[in-house]
Design brief:
By secondary structure, this protein is of the alpha/beta class. The chain is built from ten helices and twelve strands. The chain folds into two domains: 205 residues, 3-Layer(aba) Sandwich (Rossmann fold), CATH 3.40.50.300; 73 residues, no CATH class. Strand 1 and strand 2 form a beta hairpin.
Length: 322
């Protein structure tokens, strides 16, 4: 499969009065057409900022300070805002975690979706409404044509999120960046959305970057997995291989923290300590203060170790000789 998206050594920093927050630090990956890439990690690991960087939505005091984002051969870093707006919403779409960031409370759902359709094409009002209704039906909203005249406050939180997902699907984009898009949905609707996303990728070649803290969801959806910690990718590979045989101690900790791993009545496992402040990261491996295997060598930067499709950054990887 040819690469649709190529990210190389991406660095996105926030310049605050307290200092420089290195939210994304040296992130590299590629994404093929029709591929689903899971991006996981704890809150504050840099997942969402990576997504915002891809679509050019990093606001001051943040900015991309270096690196490359090539989409279908076109460099996006430094691209003029006018040119970026032509791509955003049509060829690259984003589903935000909070639908309030997407929906305008004073416009009906139909008005907002019609505006999104007509912003990138010459569709008339009737055609735009018809497309909006059909797309709402795809994400499980009943009586979609009638619901177009409702306002966002007349929908539940889960229904609003489905509207946000439907809006991203309107133009059949080449790339969708989804930031925790199913968090507010019940299990049955979540399964429907995941199935729709997989079908979209398989039938149209749309690529997905699926940002989540839910390893169970990612394991059933994604083809490949990136594990982020403190703004860096610490492990990547085919999703089944990473979850079945993790190499990084942080990935192992995430898996051990899943509630399903504990027996009824047992105390849940957790990774000790807390995520470090990006203003004052420890030297070397940022996970070292929380890692059960850390020693003196971990005060130096860990190497990038490649084994086939697997990549991990650790001085003492699991399953290998120290």
């Amino acid at each position: 499969m040819s690469a649709l998206l190529e990210v190389r050594d991406l660095r996105t920093h926030f310049f605050t009065r307290a200092g420089v927050v290195r939210a994304v630090e040296g992130v590299s990956f590629s994404l093929a057409r029709g591929e689903i890439l899971g991006l996981v990690g704890e809150s504050g690991s840099g997942k969402s900022v990576t997504g915002f960087s891809l679509i050019g939505l990093v606001d001051p005091p943040g900015r991309i300070v270096s690196g490359s984002i090539r989409f279908d051969g076109q460099e996006l870093v430094g691209l003029a805002q006018g040119d970026m707006r032509k791509l955003r919403g049509k060829r690259i779409a984003m589903v935000f975690q909070d639908p309030a960031a997407t929906l305008n409370p004073v416009l009906t759902i139909g008005q907002q979706m019609a505006l999104a359709v007509r912003a990138h094409g010459g569709a008339g009002e009737a055609a735009a409404r018809d497309l909006a209704a059909r797309t709402l039906t795809r994400v499980g909203i009943p009586d979609a044509a009638a619901r177009l005249d409702a306002y966002p406050h007349e929908f539940s939180g889960g229904m609003r999120q489905r509207v946000a997902i439907a809006t991203a699907l309107l133009h059949g984009p080449d790339l969708i960046i989804a930031d925790e898009p199913t968090t507010a949905l019940d299990v049955s609707i979540q399964a429907q959305i995941l199935a729709e996303m997989q079908k979209l990728a398989r039938e149209t070649g749309t690529a997905l970057v699926w940002i989540s803290h839910d390893l169970a969801t990612v394991s059933s959806l994604a083809d490949r997995l990136l594990v982020m910690y403190a703004g860096r990718i610490v492990e990547s590979g085919r999703v089944g291989e990473v979850l079945r045989d993790p190499r990084h101690h942080y990935t192992r900790g995430l898996l051990d923290s899943l509630p399903a791993t504990a027996l009824p009545g047992e105390k849940l496992n957790q990774i000790p300590g807390t995520t470090p402040s990006l203003l004052s990261l420890p030297p070397g491996c940022p996970f070292a203060p929380r890692c059960p295997r850390a020693d003196a060598v971990c005060a130096t930067d860990p190497p990038d170790v490649a084994m086939g499709d697997r990549l991990f950054r650790c001085h003492h990887p699991l399953g290998l000789a120290a």
